[in-house]
Structures are given as structure tokens and as C-alpha cells.
From TrEMBL:
One of its GO terms (molecular function) is medium-chain fatty acid-CoA ligase activity. This is Long-chain-fatty-acid--CoA ligase. Pfam families: AMP-binding, AMP-binding_C. It comes from Hydrocarboniphaga effusa AP103. Keywords: Ligase.
Length: 518
């Protein structure tokens, strides 16, 4: 039985907003505006419609579309009935989407026809698993999303029976990048989302007057965590399907958005677009970027979101905000809802200044990966979440992210992490890119070999690069061998293709007989 007295849930917050913000705007999408009472009514109906389709506790609901109010509705409705909502990366190929369908086995799939319809339908045909219910988001017929919502009963059985949803259950599955060859679905609970919301309320100075433009993709935690935090405080979420400079400028102007998820490229495009002053963007709070940008918006003191985190822990848990400009790290300090340690290969905490794996515990950590028991046992042992990322605690207690943890290299008794050596090499002015591999060594078990791509018009000798590393990292970590390559091979996910580098340059003899890139 849920502890109703002490519960805090997404659907509970929505019901609270119905009363505290009876005229407040919850969501805007294209020509449609939803108040908090209207959103609450739709979520009740949507939850009832899902249950009528056979969706129960633990079942999955798949969203295959771009940014819309439906993402917020589906997340809260699934949380309400104990189901799990999955926002799919709509930029994927049909084969990649088919993999998610087969892995997730959703009971209900909601899809968007505009722009991605052909790809979704090809994935539907290719997938072995066939969801029982398919709902067309942008259809205007009986199979449309709005018709599906309207089909649900308006009766709130949970309120009538004095029940609440269980915030400890997973309510969302978000697939991560395929670093290990296939994507894995991180399962997040309402509790995890709500705790992260409270971190963001402080860091981004959110309040009920906040109007957030959802311009970044909602299949990434970076945008979705802000969306749920704005919802948490009773603010307004404005949705545009995808990032487009003109659409961004129009929506900021028309809806007086005070916050937006924007990258530098889009900001520069808006500067060019708005040189004639067509759009009034003064409502937007933004850090300083350039004189032209600053003149268009309201420049605010830096409240940096930069730090370290990942989908599996709900987004950042280390923030520049806590110690910005006052610590040695480029990433900052641990926020108020997590604990962080830096461990060596034997799971012992390393001393400040030493590199090791970042491990995390706290209420924002995922429940685990969907259908990955072996991986969960590996990544969540000993009461910590192992991030597969390397970091370093500085002497002042702040934390620095070093790089992703790839296959470790063993030099006698010493463990060497390629990411650390690569970071050092990339700091050399002549180096454009690099990859570190381990090659068999009769004396040392393995030797470090650097595969280096130089910048156009630059030059550097093997000896010069080795000495550069010797001067910046422990001597045993420096490359013993350096090879040059015109362009580093990369995987489909954009990572350095270490397996190919091993084949081309003699890599092998990794600890435990592991293969790089596997």
C-alpha cells in the first residue's frame, strides 16, 4: 500500500496546480493552449484510455514523434497508472526504431506522420513485436491522438478511492547512446524526476511565471528535465516540433518565453535573422553570448547548467553553479541530491588528483536498464551507480570530468585509462584528434600507443608528443609509440572506432581478454 500521507507525485502536482493555478497556462503547442485544469482533465482521460487498451503497472507506452504537449501528458498519465513512458529518438533510422520496438515491447505506440511517418511505418513493418494499439498523433480521424484521449473516461477513480500513484516505480524509459553496440533503456522513477526538478528550480531560478520554450529534443534528458521542473513550479511549457531559428524567434516573441534550450549555432542564426528587429526577444533571459545577441535579449548573471551527469542519473549531479568561479574544476561541485566518489579498478576511493571511475548514489539514480540484468549487476554494484566515465577530485574538493572510460590498458601493475592520455594529447596545439590503444608487450603486458591525427598545416614529431605527455601526466601513462593517421575511424555513434585501430595498429592483450569496442 502506498504511503499516501507522505507521497509526492507528478499527477498529484498536476491536481495541486489545478487548484493553485486555475487560470495558469500549462502547455502551448502550435495554435493550442492548455490551462492546468484542462491538462489535468486530459491526463485523467488519457490514463483511463491507456488502461482500457490493456496498459497496466510496468507496461510500456512508446512515443515516436517530435516535441509536443503529448510528451508531458503521456509522461504524467503513465506515471499515474504505473506504466512506463518512452520518448523515442525520432532522428533514428527504421532499423534503429525497430530495435527499440522489439526491445521495449510496448502495448501502445503513438506515432507522428509529419516528417518521420515513412520511417516509423518502415520500422513497424520490420519489427518482430507488434504493439496491439497504434495511435496516429497528427491524424484527424478516429485513430488520432486527440480521439484516443477523448475515448477515456472522465471519472477519476484514484481520487474517489483516496489512492495515489507509486512514485518509487519506474515511470519513464529513456534510451541511451549505443556505446556498447546497442542502446539501453534507463528506467527513471517519479521520485528521481521530482528530486532533479527541485535542483533545477534553484539553479535556473524557476517560478510559476517562467515560460520555457521546448526547442531541444525531448528524447534527451537535457531538455526534458527542464520541462518537468517548469511543470513542477506551475510554469508554462511552450513546445515547437524541432529546433528552427525562425520558429524559435517567433515563439519567443509571441509567447514571451523567458527561458529556452538553445545552442550557440541557433543563437547566431537568430542574430542574423533578427537584424531588422522584427522579433522582440527582450523577454528571454540568457547568459551573455555576443554584443549582437546581448542587445536582443535580457542578459542575466551566469547560472551555469554545465557540469557532469548522464541520463542514468537524471541529468547533471555535479554543477558549476555550486562553486562557479571558485573552484579548480571545470565541472564544479556535487549538487544537493547526490553523492559522488572516484574509484580505482578495485573499487577503492582514490586520492585527490588521481583519476578513477565516477560513481554516484542518490534519489535521482535510475532503477536500472530495461531488460539488462547482467549490465545492471555490473553498473549498480555495492550500492553505487558506476558511470563508465572517468573523473578526478581536485584538492579543493571540486570534481573534474576526464572522459569516457574505454577498455583499460594494463602496464605491469598500473592501470591506464585511454581517455586521460587522449585528453592530454588533444591539448597539444598540433593535434586535431587521437585514439589510444594498448599493444602487447612482453615486459610490460601492454604498451601505450597513440594514433594521432594532426591539424591541417601543423606538424609534430613522435618524440615531441611523447614529451608533451610526460610533462602533463604521470610518466607511466605516456605513449611509448606514436603513429600518425590522416583521419581517425569513427563508429556510427560518432565515437573513435577503437576496434578498427586495434586491427590497423596491432592492439591487443587487454585485461581479461577483452576486445576494444566490444
Amino acid at each position: 500500500m502506498n504511503d499516501v500521507l507522505h507521497s509526492l507525485t507528478l499527477d498529484g502536482l498536476l491536481e495541486e496546480h489545478r487548484r493553485t493555478h486555475p487560470h495558469g497556462i500549462a502547455a502551448v503547442f502550435e495554435h493550442r493552449v492548455f490551462t492546468y485544469p484542462q491538462l489535468a482533465d486530459r491526463v485523467i482521460q488519457l490514463g483511463n484510455a491507456l488502461q482500457a487498451s490493456g496498459v497496466g503497472v510496468g507496461d510500456r507506452v512508446l512515443w515516436m514523434g517530435q516535441n509536443t504537449h503529448a510528451v508531458l501528458e503521456l509522461l504524467i498519465a503513465c506515471a499515474r497508472i504505473g506504466a512506463q513512458f518512452c520518448p523515442l529518438n525520432w532522428r533514428q533510422t527504421a532499423a534503429e526504431i525497430a530495435f527499440v520496438i522489439d526491445d521495449l515491447e510496448p502495448r501502445v505506440a503513438i506515432w507522428q506522420d509529419q516528417e518521420i511517418g515513412a520511417t516509423v511505418l518502415a520500422a513497424r513493418e520490420a519489427a518482430s513485436f507488434k504493439p496491439a494499439v497504434w495511435v496516429a498523433f497528427d491524424s484527424h480521424g478516429s485513430d488520432s491522438y486527440d480521439a484516443y484521449v477523448a475515448s477515456g473516461s472522465r471519472f477519476d477513480a484514484m481520487a474517489a478511492e483516496g489512492r495515489t500513484s507509486d512514485p518509487s516505480l519506474p515511470c519513464m524509459i529513456m534510451y541511451t547512446a549505443a556505446f556498447t553496440g546497442r542502446p539501453n533503456g534507463a528506467m527513471m522513477s517519479q521520485t528521481a524526476l521530482l528530486w532533479q526538478n527541485l535542483s533545477l528550480v534553484d539553479i535556473q531560478a524557476l517560478r510559476s511565471e517562467t515560460v520555457f520554450l521546448n526547442s531541444g529534443p525531448l528524447f534527451h534528458i537535457g531538455t526534458l528535465m527542464v520541462s518537468t521542473a517548469v511543470f513542477h513550479v506551475g510554469g508554462t511549457n511552450v513546445f515547437i516540433r524541432r529546433t528552427d531559428a525562425r520558429a524559435v524567434a517567433e515563439h519567443i516573441h509571441n509567447h514571451r518565453c523567458t527561458l529556452a534550450f538553445l545552442v550557440g549555432k541557433t543563437q547566431h542564426e537568430i542574430v542574423e535573422l533578427n537584424r531588422g528587429g522584427l522579433y522582440d526577444l527582450k523577454c528571454l533571459r540568457s547568459p551573455s553570448l555576443s554584443p549582437e545577441w546581448d542587445a536582443m535579449v535580457t542578459v542575466t548573471p551566469e547560472r551555469s547548467l554545465f557540469g557532469f551527469g548522464q541520463t542514468e542519473v537524471g541529468g547533471p549531479v555535479v554543477w558549476q553553479y555550486y562553486g562557479f568561479g571558485k573552484c579548480a574544476s571545470r565541472n564544479g561541485r556535487t549538487g544537493p541530491v547526490a553523492m559522488v566518489r572516484i574509484l580505482d579498478a578495485d573499487d577503492n576511493e582514490v586520492a585527490p588528483g588521481e583519476t578513477g571511475e565516477i560513481v554516484i548514489r542518490g534519489p535521482t539514480v535510475m532503477h536500472g536498464y530495461w531488460r539488462r540484468p547482467e549490465l545492471n549487476a555490473q553498473r549498480q554494484r555495492g550500492g553505487w551507480h558506476y558511470t563508465n566515465d572517468l573523473g578526478r577530485r581536485e584538492s579543493d574538493g571540486s570534481l573534474s570530468f576526464v572522459g569516457p572510460k574505454t577498455q583499460m590498458i594494463k602496464s605491469m601493475a598500473e592501470n591506464i585509462y585511454p581517455a586521460e592520455v587522449e585528453g592530454c594529447l588533444r591539448s597539444h596545439p598540433a593535434v586535431a584528434d587521437c585514439g589510444i590503444i594498448g599493444v602487447p608487450d612482453d615486459k610490460w603486458v601492454q604498451s601505450v600507443k597513440a594514433i594521432v591525427q594532426l591539424k591541417p598545416g601543423s606538424s609534430a614529431t613522435r618524440e615531441e608528443l611523447i614529451e608533451h605527455c610526460r610533462a602533463h601526466i604521470a610518466s607511466y601513462k605516456k605513449p611509448r609509440h606514436v603513429e600518425f593517421i590522416e583521419k581517425l575511424p569513427r563508429t556510427a555513434a560518432g565515437a573513435v572506432d577503437y576496434a578498427t585501430l586495434d586491427k590497423l595498429f596491432g592492439g591487443g592483450n587487454y585485461p581479461g581478454g577483452a576486445t576494444r569496442g566490444a
